[in-house]
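Annual report, structural modelling task.

Input specification for the heme C complex:
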Amino acid sequence: MGKKISSKLWLAALIAPFLFGVAQTSFATSEVQRLFVKEYSQFNISGGKLDTCATCHSPSIREGFNNYGLVLKLMKTPEGKFDFVGAEALDGDGDGVSNGDEIRANNFPGSQASEEGVFIFTNGKGTVEFNHGNHVVEEDYGINGNCDSCHNSPTAKASFSMLFEDSINMKSVAHDVCLGCHKRDPDKIAPTGCSDCHVK
Ligand code: HEC
Ligand code: HEC
Ligand code: HEC
Ligand code: HEC
Ligand SMILES: [Ca+2]
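The model returned the following structure:
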């Protein structure tokens, strides 16, 4: 097994699948999830944040894998076993901490999201908490599953990539895409004040 899973492969896996968060299809807990929880039972994973689809799949496209889920899929043995131990040395979300150390610290190995579907941007002005799940599916946000509003915005100068990355400064994109839409909110509920988004 090679050490690096190329990011191109990862993207292909992300883009190919259908959406289902939006379609509201329901799935029972997956078999891989059950095996994962069992493998790491001494770290009290059961019922916690890692005991969710988000450990291995992407927000809003659960048939899409994050870089940890994809590694498990690719490293599956011919006998159909998942090589959890083999995947530990890799760094799925590219933040410098290995998958094994992330899991033991109760962090997602395949994403820098802090909770399922929640991204926290840390920056000098004050952290901004972005609820991806709510924005995409909740009717009040007016987005209704349209990924392009943020990932390929026709009105913005630049858009967000489909990889949460907290080490790059996103100010211009965020103020254009996020604040821009908030200002256009007909109900005037979306936050526009600096400290509504930035919390010290
Ligand atoms: C610990 C990692 C892990 C968790 C947690 C997990 N999955 Fe998966 N999932 C996988 C892997 C790995 C595969 C590929 C299985 C295979 O190839 O045999 C997969 C396959 C799938 C597939 C089939 C798509 C495909 O391309 O093979 C669906 C749908 C799916 N998972 C949905 C879910 C849902 C819904 C949840 C949460 C209830 C979930 N999974 C939780 C790792 C996980
Ligand atoms: C309201 C804005 C918004 C919408 C709408 C939106 N996203 Fe995102 N998404 C983001 C932001 C912001 C990030 C983090 C980007 C960054 O850090 O550069 C992100 C990250 C992601 C990631 C990476 C997740 C991770 O854990 O690293 C995936 C996958 C993704 N989005 C898929 C989707 C899909 C699929 C849709 C449509 C169903 C969608 N997004 C709709 C704003 C949005
Ligand atoms: C296409 C429009 C749109 C985009 C793009 C958008 N938002 Fe929002 N956002 C809303 C609306 C509408 C609400 C208010 C929803 C409600 O409470 O009824 C909201 C609410 C919020 C809230 C209040 C708490 C919450 O989750 O409801 C925060 C914080 C927030 N957005 C941050 C962001 C950030 C950060 C981005 C960019 C990564 C972003 N939003 C992109 C429409 C948008
Ligand atoms: C809709 C939410 C939202 C509102 C409202 C908002 N911002 Fe931001 N702002 C962001 C996001 C998201 C980032 C990108 C953070 C990152 O990349 O870590 C950001 C980045 C910044 C940065 C860069 C911080 C750094 O360390 O480089 C500054 C400065 C900033 N905002 C100032 C403001 C000011 C001043 C206001 C009020 C006029 C404001 N913001 C209103 C969401 C918001
Ligand atoms: Ca990591």
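Residues 128-131, 134-135, 140-143, 149-150, 174, 177-178, 181-182, 185, 189-191, 197 surround heme C (ligand 3) (CB under 6 Å).
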